[in-house]
Amino acid sequence: ALARETRIADGKGSIAAPGTRLARCGRGALRAPGAYPHLATGKEDAMTSDQPAAADRARHLTPEDYRTTPWRNGGGKTTEIAVSPPGASVSEGFDWRLSVAEVASDGPFSSFPGYQRSLSLLSGGGILLDAGKEGDIELRQPYKPVSFPGEWEIEGRLLGAATRDLNLIFARDRVAGRVGFVTAGPSPLGVESDAAVLLLYLA
Q1: How far apart are CA 49 and CA 106, in angstroms?
Q2: Which of 8-12, 76-80, 108-112, 185-189 is predicted least confidently?
Q3: pLDDT digits (tens, 9 = 90+) for 111-126
């Protein structure tokens, strides 16, 4: 577990400019045997390590390491930032996955029975999540995560312009996870966590 300070840097100094928002999956989040810590910077690079206790051995991932998949209905696309176990697919199943979705039109959400989902608006007009008898969930305020079971039947309706959101999804019976946001200041950002997996995404 990461029990000491981890700094986000790209070898040229801090990669987090003042005022930058960072999404954090940390402290108590994503506990999975054999998982590795991730430090992800969404637009440029990310970091991973095969040594869970050694944040200083983390490495950068670049967008070339991500996987982007257009939706079958043509309503958007998903860019997978990180997944555990590495290389796992939706059809095979996974412990957890962090991704960014670009939503261009209304449509149904994919069903993930047994998983928990957390969505956070990054940009755009937001989405109304119509969960039927479970009620409506508004994803309108940036950087404010909303969470719901993956098996809920949800119809998404755009509230304005096309939307970009951060998605954390994890198997409830194997791991636990949460998303939080911090704002980077003028100094290098230090993050402490006792999580088995820590992922920082430069949003």
Answers
A1: 37
A2: 8-12
A3: 899 999 999 999 999 9
Model confidence band, residue 102 (pLDDT cutoffs 50, 70, 90)? very high
Query: In this structure, what token pair is assigned to residue 40?
Result: 């992800």
CA angle 139, 140, 142 (to 5 degrees): 100
Q: How far is 194 from 202, CA to CA, in rounded Å? A: 21
Distance, CA of 88 to CA of 183 (rounded, Å) = 31
Phi-psi region of 132 (alpha: psi -120 to 50; beta: other; left: phi over 0): left
Rounded CA separation 77/157 (Å): 16
Instruction: Return the amino acid letter for 26.
Output: G
The Cα–Cα gap between 66 and 32 comes to 21
Name the DSSP letter for residue 22: E
Q: State how far the Cα of 156 lies from the Cα of 49, in Å rounded to an integer.
A: 35
Q: What is the pLDDT of residues 21-46, one digit of tens each?
A: 555 554 333 333 333 333 343 443 44
